[in-house]
Structure prediction request, 289 residues.
Amino acid sequence: MEIIRSITALDRFLQPFRDEGKSIGLVPTMGSLHEGHMALVKQCVGENDVSVVSVFVNPTQFNDKEDFRLYPRNSEADCALLESVGVTVAFVPSVEEMYPEPDTRVFDFGMLDKVMEGRFRPGHFNGVAQIVSKLFYIVKPTKAYFGEKDFQQLAIVREMVKQLDIPVEIVGVPIVREASGLAMSSRNLRLSEEQRQKAAEIYRSLLLSADFVGEKSIRETIDFVTNRINQIDGLRVEYFDIVNGATLQPVSDWNESTYIVGCIAVFCGDVRLIDNISYKNLGKSNDVH
Prediction:
């Protein structure tokens, strides 16, 4: 596996493969890799001639400087893990390499980024769009892989690709969970063992609420999940929204859409965790080309 730190060197390495018409897969990550990331990476390796995994903690998508400072980093371990599964290139640039000057681009995603994460993390998705579009322009991938845990991010990336007319297939990969049900996240490393056990109640609450579909109202479902989690010492729901999976706008009735998703953000101590559950998914493909 090649470890490349400069854009020029990466372009030089990939050009011969492009010239031969080889498929190039990309997995953008912020490092501190876990089994959730590795599910994306393994699918990327299996489906492409060349696999590129970026390891870069992107400062422009953090609206909380402390969160950026505390975000786990271990690129040496990450690279060893990537090499073990047959990745072709680990792209590990510096902030200066990716942003030699400030990126002043501002994206308009309509209502997609005004709800949920966008409401509580202003500027976050603009930063995501900045870095992901940069990586797409640098790597020119055939396919790019994103986890469905970051459900809203996946929708934003798909919309960005459409707006910028970038010729890449976006592949959504299902959430990978710990044995307890807790969605795998780099931020889980900041949880104590006791917190980790409590955090498992997030998904347990979502699963219990799946029985509410068609039986209880949207409002009752939201209240059930929110109250159940908030009753657990050390957990605090920031938001729990039940939305149209395509538009991300809140629904008020189970019959409003054939694709309905519950998205949640919960603080476990000072660690912010997100998760989601698909309540209805009729005729919806996970892969949008």
Summary: Residues 283-289 have pLDDT under 50 and may be disordered. The beta strands are 2-4, 24-29, 50-55, 89-91, 143-147, 169-173, 235-244, 259-268, 271-281, 287-288. DSSP finds ten helices and ten strands in the chain. Residues 193-209 form the longest helix (17 residues).
